[in-house]
Design brief:
Blueprint lengths: L4 H29 L9 H30 L2 H40 L2
């Protein structure tokens, strides 16, 4: 099994752009919280970006390690490689969910703090 290299590069670039935008979002919230005497709500988007960074690392590892082995694996090794690849996919999915939830929580908490 071979990875589609242009699609993987596009995916990693999109993840990196999302990380940068979440960091900028967190820093903007940090500056705006000074105006309303808010707490450390800005840390939630930063945590979301760290989750996305971990997702990118897991994804790159899966593409570099599992995909070449899946293409050359014999029948005895194939099941273990598929299970390993799918377990990394599960971790990636939870990291993506965590990133979205942390960003959403940060936005909702800022909205609640600013609309008092």
């Amino acid at each position: 099994m071979r990875a589609d290299i242009p699609a993987e590069i596009l995916f990693i670039v999109a993840i990196l752009l999302t990380i940068v935008s979440l960091v900028i979002f967190g820093l903007i919230i940090k500056r705006l919280l000074v105006l309303i005497k808010g707490k450390v709500i800005w840390i939630f988007p930063i945590l979301g970006s760290l989750f996305l960074l971990a997702l990118a690392v897991f994804h790159i590892y899966r593409m570099l390690f599992y995909f070449p082995l899946l293409g050359t694996a014999g029948p005895a090794d194939l099941f273990d490689l598929i299970v390993g690849s799918l377990s990394l996919s599960r971790i990636e999915s939870f990291l993506l969910l965590g990133s979205g939830l942390f960003s959403l929580i940060g936005g909702v908490l800022y909205y609640a703090a600013s609309s008092k």
